[in-house]
Design brief:
alpha/beta, 2-enoyl-CoA Hydratase, Chain A, domain 1, 2 domains, eight-stranded mixed sheet, 15 helices, 50% helix, 14% strand, globular
């Protein structure tokens, strides 16, 4: 049976339960149910494929938040070598929600900036549920400048509901810290790759997301606001989160069409939490391919493309009245 199943996965669980009952009955009574077992296994595969090939935006949000989904440090352990974590922003402290440091991707030494969540209460308290404080973004900027100084490419692994909105965070100027990162990342004179591996929430995600190549995992999402918060604002009720998720166009499939991201990294069927090793292999392949591509480009050309990439984001229409005024 599957651990931590989501609501839309219940038809699969029911079929799996029936399959197990059939196998148990066959063993207990020494009966031949091989044809029935094979038919049930085929039905499970068809049902799984039908569900996962037609996921709604809200269902993908649920997969992006799955407690068993690989987090940044899981990918670092599988995709990178020679990981050395660096600590502190040299101003206030070290933010455990953003473990960052040096690592090797293939034969390239690089700086890796991440968001990290926790799997249990103790770890979530330590990591602040992946919601970084200003010192996290200032640490990230310190390491980005270190990368620029030594000519190292930068890789960002994004997985956060958003920057922490608490009083201390506001007192230490979270909006200013993120704004400075946006400006400085646009001008970094090294190749940069960002990947949304789970949740890409608002400015908290964008604060390390300005890059030459922006990738997103198949069931991750990237949005200016969470579906629940959007629902609470528009409908005065969080129960419309599924409708909000559709309207926000936050899925990888929506974002590639809008030009917000450059590539979708495939996940194992049913989500990255089903097979951490395969998910990491897919991500590692995509990272190496994109890094080799941008490293090969002349720096000035790369920076001009980065500017143009973000300059053209967003679509709008102008009404007739505005044109005539």
């Amino acid at each position: 049976m599957e651990s931590h199943p989501l609501d839309f996965e219940k038809p699969i669980l029911e079929l799996q339960r029936r399959l197990q009952d059939l196998k148990n009955h066959s063993d207990e009574h020494a009966l031949d149910f091989d044809s029935e077992v094979e038919a049930m296994e085929n039905k499970i595969r068809e049902t799984r494929r039908a569900i996962y090939d037609n996921l709604t935006a809200w269902q993908r949000v649920q997969l992006a938040r799955h407690i068993r989904r690989p987090f940044a440090l899981d990918y670092i352990g599988r995709c990178f070598t020679d990981w050395i974590e660096l600590h502190g922003d040299r101003v206030f402290g070290d933010d455990k929600a953003m473990p960052s440091g040096l690592a090797k991707l293939g034969h390239h030494r690089c700086v890796v900036i991440t968001h990290q969540k926790g799997r249990d209460t103790k770890e979530n308290v330590k990591r602040n549920f992946g919601c970084a404080h200003p010192e996290g973004y200032r640490k990230a900027l310190r390491l980005m400048r270190l990368a620029e100084k030594f000519g190292l490419p930068i890789i960002s692994l994004i997985d956060t509901p958003g920057a922490f909105p608490g009083i201390g965070s506001e007192e230490r100027h979270i909006s200013e810290a993120i704004a400075v990162n946006l400006r400085e990342m646009m001008n970094l004179r090294v190749p940069t790759v960002a990947v949304v591996i789970g949740e890409g929430g608002s400015g908290g995600a964008l604060g390390i997301g300005v890059a030459d190549r922006v990738l997103i995992l198949e069931n991750a999402y990237y949005s200016v606001i969470s579906p629940e918060a959007c629902s609470a604002i528009l409908w005065k009720d969080r129960r419309h989160a599924a409708e909000a998720a559709e309207a926000l166009k936050l899925t990888a499939q929506d974002l590639i069409g809008l030009g917000v991201v450059d590539e979708i990294v495939p996940e194992p069927e049913g989500g990255a939490h089903r097979d951490h090793d395969l998910a990491a292999a897919n991500l590692g392949t995509a990272l190496r391919r994109n890094l080799e591509r941008i490293i090969a480009q002349p720096l000035e050309e790369l920076m001009q493309q980065r500017y143009e990439k973000f300059r053209k984001l967003g679509k709008y229409t102008v009404g007739v009245e505005a044109l005539n005024s």
